[in-house]
Amino acid sequence: MTSKLMQEIKFLPGVGPKKAELLQSELDIFTFNDLLYYFPYKYIDRTRFYKTREVNSNMPYVQVIGRLSALQKTGEGAKARLNALFSDDTGVIELIWFKGIKWQLKNLKPGAVYVLFGKPSLFNGKINVVHPELDEYTNENSETAGGIQAFYNTTEKMKKNYLSSKAILKLQSNLAPLVRSSISETLPAWFVKKFKLMSLREALYYIHFPDSHQRLLAAQYRLKFEELFFIQLKILSLKSNRTQKFKGHVFKVIGDHFNTFFHKHLPFEMTGAQKKVIREIRYDVGSGHQMNRLLQGDVGSGKTMVALMCMLMALDNDTQASLMAPTEILATQHYNTLSKMLTPMNLNVRLLTGSTKTKERKIIHSELLDGSLDILIGTHALIESKVAFKNLGFVVIDEQHRFGVAQRAKLWQKNTIPPHVLVMTATPIPRTLAMTVYGDLDVSVIDELPPGRKPVKTMHFYDNKRKQVFQFIRDEIRKGRQVYFVFPLIEESEKLDYKNLESGYATIKKVFPECEIGMVHGRMKPDEKDFEMNRFKNKETQILVSTTVIEVGVDVPNASVMVIESAERFGLSQLHQLRGRVGRGAEQSYCILMSSYKLSKDSTIRLQTMVRTTDGFEIAETDLKLRGPGDMEGTQQSGLGFNLKIANISRDGELLQHARNVATDIIDSDPLLQNELNHLFKVQLKKMKQAQFNWSVIS
Ligand code: ADP
Ligand code: MG
User: Fold this and answer.
1) 526 and 447 in contact (C-beta within 8 Å)?
2) CA 553 to ligand 2 centroid distance, Å
3) What is the set of domains in the chain, with CATH numbers?
4) Whose CA is nearest to atom 4 of ligand 1?
5) Rounded to two decimals, what is the model's pTM?
6) Which of 272, 293, 542, 673 is the least buried, fewest Cβ under 10 Å from its Cβ?
7) Is the dihedral of CA 434, 153, 688, 21 positive or negative?
């Protein structure tokens, strides 16, 4: 890139100071180059006009020339709508607006000829277009030579100041001559040839001004591939640097702790998947570099046992181990489970949470330092600066997405030799996303549930079936089962949230007068929560009414029914997490999704997905498709620091895999990119902002 493209945007013909300011504040466009890399979000094929008779509802959009007539407003307020007719010599189409009616009425001219753009749909057997784009017919738009037209996202503020999509396109055309003269290739010639890529110069031109579908696809492919490739190359080269630079504890032996427990005290036979993962980890921690591994395993797949075996490995190699959980309930539960299983092993295991008393705290601090504390289990309290280990060798982080990168970094600082880190998550992350977000973590997967588990049966009911649902629940309770009722968290208002829960609780109490009912929610003190949870665990209550605080990890095998109220309000991964609370015992379990009739398209897909499958990976893939990667749980906190300009992780999964494979080959054969043939890669990597990738060395 030459310095010409680094000029401030205000110097581009057609921009000027006012527009420059808007481009900066609204779109982060500061230079010519920023504008060049502001890509269209869609294209419309203006290569032809249709006649009204040809239009059918399968077409993604159409362009028609016709006369506007019969503008008519009906209804008021939220029910207001505007109808009109649009006709040519072959027929008529109906136009409908639900919004901006005042504006349309003021500006549209009945009787005038317009060029219409829009998505046709079929309603009551008639073709219509909702919210069409209408341009008065002029000499300019009467030509089809416009070809495939690019559309750019702009904001309301920009539109008000005449910076519409069209205006941006005009600016791009002012920039085009410069593109032709000053763009130089960013990929080595051999690479461009090998992967049959369009040149960068052409791609940057045709992405804004495509003259055919073929060229547009080639331009998109080139730019997406390059974008994904460089991210992967960066991640892999950082990882390769990290493994060279940071030496990890070498766990040389599988010793007494591991063996004794494995042969004498294991409460069950491990599944093949658990054994496989332990083998993967064992190999990793023996290799001399520091392990950073993500363990994905569906709820109930037995991750805790894997964690325990790893911690024993650490003890066998004269280091300490630690397990960190996101909530006090979970940390306590882990502590109880693990210390019970470890009773015959005579180890020093302790719990540290926010409510640990000062006296106990002091003991913990000093035992950690003198090395007499073997395993410390806890919450965020573990990463307080006062907590220092003598020799921390292995850290397990349960339910990873609750922990931010910064917090993990703190753990890292607790030792000169960094501990091995195992991050466990029950929210499966689609492979493509994991590759980018956790690109430098190794990934292990438990893809098998312990034997004898019956998959949870999931059903969806509308509110009018409540009576039958309650009857069903009553029958289950009579059989000795226990039931969760979960109400959604209304984040904007904790008060409302509580009210929702309160009234739900009152209803349930009325419906099940014969039952003991408990309630937990986020506003309770930890010991109150624990008290209620324990009552449920000990079967003193049959029904537990709660918000999503029971989402993660809570283990009550006798609870076999999970009722999720207003299920349409939950995200997919959350629904999946909640469902994981049941199906932990030998009995058939049920998940009942209650919803209102009014469901958006996305909520319908979410509920259908839940009914159809219990496969966490399938659910995660669907979630990614519905929400896009930006919203996926975990991505925010894990510090996904790069904004993709053109590629889309949910849609371009295959290309991402391809880019990763290509990058892997290159880093494997030339880790430092010293080969002259790879020189351009090195130049590009240097340009990529270091700051964007800081997370990858601390995770
Ligand atoms: P998660 O992966 O959700 O953390 P847990 O580790 O809590 O799952 O395990 C869920 C339940 O399954 C626990 O009660 C645990 O004791 C049990 N479990 C784990 N592994 C096995 C196994 N191999 N065979 C039988 N039960 C197992
Ligand atoms: Mg767990």
Assistant:
1) no
2) 5
3) 1-45+148-180 (1.10.150), 47-146 (2.40.50.140), 256-446 (3.40.50.300), 457-613 (3.40.50.300)
4) 303
5) 0.66
6) 272
7) negative
